[in-house]
Structure to design on (420 residues):
């Protein structure tokens, strides 16, 4: 294996069902249902998925949801703002743990 | 190479003509823009133009054929000096006469007389607007096109186009600004309608979302950007057999600026003549009959991707 991530793996995602077809079916049915039009539009859901893809740093998801966002009519500006939302939450989550650091430090310090 | 014929056979589908009730007239390749997705490679340096004599032959063919719709396209048809006389000849021959406009040509000072002429003749306008942002629109169509297009749309609205009850129909066409498929038409129309109204006070009747056809300048861009194979795979993968029944080539004939006939504007761009041989409108006494074969090639996967191309 020359690379951990291969773009050609993405279209083969369905193969994951070969060893556990029932579990895979449940997952893919649920996955499809999640992204259907609902209270949120399919376009809005794709933007959320793009942001989450960056937060979890999944290259397959970034590839797939960049295309999905474009195909659902989103602009690069909207997609960039979505990534900033992911960045703000991830950065904020790191920073807010500083409160724990401060609490521990204060307890231990004179 | 993906074979469309093989795909039809594999899906047990037969693609032949039904009643040909629509005529599309391509009046030439001259255009003030050189859009990156243009399947005809139209542009400011092209000299192919329908002349008066051929326009009369096309009108004579239309008079014999009783088309329910006639669609004028280009290039930018606005730049062909024959356009006013063509409109005058065609107007009595069909209940629905439409013109594909790129908006910026219509807004040029030299073409100012055209807008009232189109309104007087109740010509349906089908205008290109790929996106509701400057970044994607200008990337596809050229710097500054988005702002100019908005201004022309506002002028058309002021004339009554796109306004309820005016009888002046203004439809928009959105093609993706890249190697990806278009959004769903209903959802995109809703967004375009609300955003154009809220931000620029613009109204329109319908929005059509069409995939880009891998021919001409778009094919060149796909190849140079390394997107050609993946784009073709995407089109083939999105093949929808149900879309075959509604394909425009079943009901439409296209005629080029020289008067030769094709099944559609894409076959025209690919040089695939109607019926497999070059036929001039002057040789025709009626539209091609139902059951006539339709020429197909790899680019036909564009019209069967997703909900299809009408």
């Amino acid at each position: 294996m020359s690379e951990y991530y291969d773009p050609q793996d993405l279209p083969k995602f369905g193969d994951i069902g070969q060893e556990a077809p029932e579990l895979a079916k449940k997952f893919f049915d649920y996955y499809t249902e999640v992204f259907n039009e609902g209270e949120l539009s399919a376009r809005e859901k794709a933007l959320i998925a793009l942001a989450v893809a960056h937060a979890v740093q999944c290259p397959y998801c970034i590839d797939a949801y960049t295309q999905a966002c474009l195909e659902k009519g989103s602009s690069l500006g909207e997609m960039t703002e979505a990534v900033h939302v992911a960045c703000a939450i991830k950065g904020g989550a790191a920073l807010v743990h500083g409160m724990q650091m401060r609490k521990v430090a204060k307890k231990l310090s004179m | 190479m993906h074979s469309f014929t093989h795909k039809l056979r594999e899906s047990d589908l037969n693609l032949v003509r039904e009643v040909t009730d629509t005529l599309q007239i391509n009046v030439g390749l001259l255009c003030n823009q050189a859009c990156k997705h243009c399947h005809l490679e139209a542009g400011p340096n092209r000299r192919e133009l329908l002349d008066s004599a051929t326009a009369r032959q096309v009108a004579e063919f239309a008079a014999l054929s009783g088309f329910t719709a006639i669609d004028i396209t280009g290039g930018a048809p606005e730049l062909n000096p024959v356009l006013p006389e063509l409109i005058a000849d065609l107007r009595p021959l069909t209940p629905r006469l439409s013109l594909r406009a790129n908006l910026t040509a219509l807004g040029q000072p030299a073409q100012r007389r055209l807008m009232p002429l189109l309104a007087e003749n109740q010509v349906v306008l089908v205008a290109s607007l790929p996106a509701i942002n400057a970044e994607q629109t200008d990337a596809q169509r050229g710097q500054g096109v988005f702002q100019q297009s908005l201004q022309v749309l506002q002028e058309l609205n002021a004339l009554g186009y796109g306004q309820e009850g005016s009888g002046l129909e203004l439809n928009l066409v959105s093609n993706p600004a890249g190697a990806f498929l278009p959004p769903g038409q209903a959802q995109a129309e809703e967004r375009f309608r609300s955003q154009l109204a809220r931000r620029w006070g613009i109204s329109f009747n319908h929005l059509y979302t069409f995939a880009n056809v891998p021919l001409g300048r778009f094919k060149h861009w796909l190849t140079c950007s390394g997107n050609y194979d993946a784009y073709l795979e995407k089109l083939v993968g999105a093949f929808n057999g149900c879309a075959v029944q509604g394909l425009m080539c079943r009901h439409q004939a296209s005629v080029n600026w020289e008067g030769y006939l094709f099944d559609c504007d894409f076959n025209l761009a690919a040089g695939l003549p109607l019926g497999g041989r070059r036929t001039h409108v002057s040789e025709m006494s009626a539209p091609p009959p139902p059951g006539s074969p339709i020429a197909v090639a790899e680019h036909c996967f564009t019209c069967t991707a997703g909900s299809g191309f009408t």
